[in-house]
Amino acid sequence: MSLRKYLRKNLLLLSIPHLFIYLMIYIAIIQLSSISDFNSVRCSDKSKLEENILLGHTSLEINTEGLAFSGFEYYENDKLAGKYYLYMTDQKIYLVLVREKNSFFDFFKGVDRKSTIPETIKIKVVKDENTVSYVMHRYAKEMGKDQNVFDGYFSSCILDEVAFPENTIFILVLAKYATLALMLITLVYMLLALINPLLNFMSKDIKQIAKIRNMNKKDVFNEIDDEVRNGLIFARDDFYITKNYALSISASKIEIIYIDNIKNLSITDVFVKKFLKKKISMGRLAGTDQQSFYFQHDFYDVDDARDAVYYMQNPDESDFIEEEYNIEDDKDIADETDVRDPDVDEAEKNKGDSDLAEAEPERFKEDSGLDKSADEVVDARGDEKNAGDN
């Protein structure tokens, strides 16, 4: 594994869930926007108004042409909030509550509520029989007639602009486009960071190390990447040590430590919540420099933290230590080594020499036997020669 692959892996682990969350938010906003309360329907004429109310639409946009002031006003907290107008269709008379003050959006439309009413307004259909009954009663009283005279003429629904959720709809629209923008930004960033690891926000330590060492960021990255691939001297619990660097890797971040810059190292026993709030004991390795840099890494075994300190302090004296390797193994090997006494060694050496001396007479005896046989052969040949001469 290389530093480049670690950066890419963590980038994907963080970016893909974010994209998924943004997509879920976007779908939720679309679903909310489709609800009748947050989706106004344009009513081009009065017949469309009746039709949409019968269909159950509660948020509508109507023309203000033909509105007549009813003589009644609407107050909120003793302040004038709107006025009631009469809106007559072929079948009913509706009370329309028009907002008195300009909203945030009226300023962009160039509307001044004190001088005129906008050509179109967005209203919410609200059933309010008490208010309608009160207006009918006052009209009948002024006319000197019984209230029943207006039965069937007035609708029990009020077309209320004050209650229309204009701000909520605006927030939903804004959130929809903001979510789309976040999805696009995250996707573009992910692609660029996959191509160029130095754009990865987890590589911020490389920039700091480049300043400390007065080197180019790309050169520092290449050096770290090469040492991680070819020069690991310690690897335990996602903590890696090379000759010049140490890396603490987790799913959410990657800390790159320039070993020569570390001045203080400490190990403490801590209890960390893991596995659904279960606390487990871990050894925490922490390090600082003389300024503001700080890092920490939790090991499942405090002995692993001690090993990490040893290899950070002695990078030139160590061999690569794998996950299953323990520095205590060296001690066990040393304990099992046979340590011999010099006097005993000398005695065994002398004993070996004496054994060799005792074996030599047998060898010489065999040699002398061979010589004797050879002399006998010569004598025999000499006798055979003399016999021939005779």
Poorly predicted parts: 322-390
Biggest pleated sheet: 7 strands, mixed
Enumerate the strands of the largest sheet in spatial order, edge to edge or round the barrel: 1-2-6-7-5-4-3
- Helical content (DSSP H or I, runs of 4+): 40-55%
Backbone structural class: alpha+beta
* Total number of beta strands: 14
Shape: rod-shaped
Output the helix-strand order.
Answer: HEHEEEEHEHEHHHEEEEEEEHHH
**Overall pLDDT:** 79
- What share of residues are in beta strands? 15-25%
Report the C-alpha radius of gyration, rounded: 48 Å
Structure description:
It is rod-shaped, with a radius of gyration of 48 Å. The longest helix is centred in the C-terminal third of the chain and has 48 residues. It is built from ten helices and 14 strands. The C terminus is likely disordered. It has a seven-stranded mixed beta sheet with strand order 1-2-6-7-5-4-3. A hairpin with a 4-residue loop joins strand 10 and strand 11. It is of the alpha+beta class and 390 residues long.
Key terms:
disordered C terminus; rod-shaped; alpha+beta; 390 residues; 14 strands; 10 helices
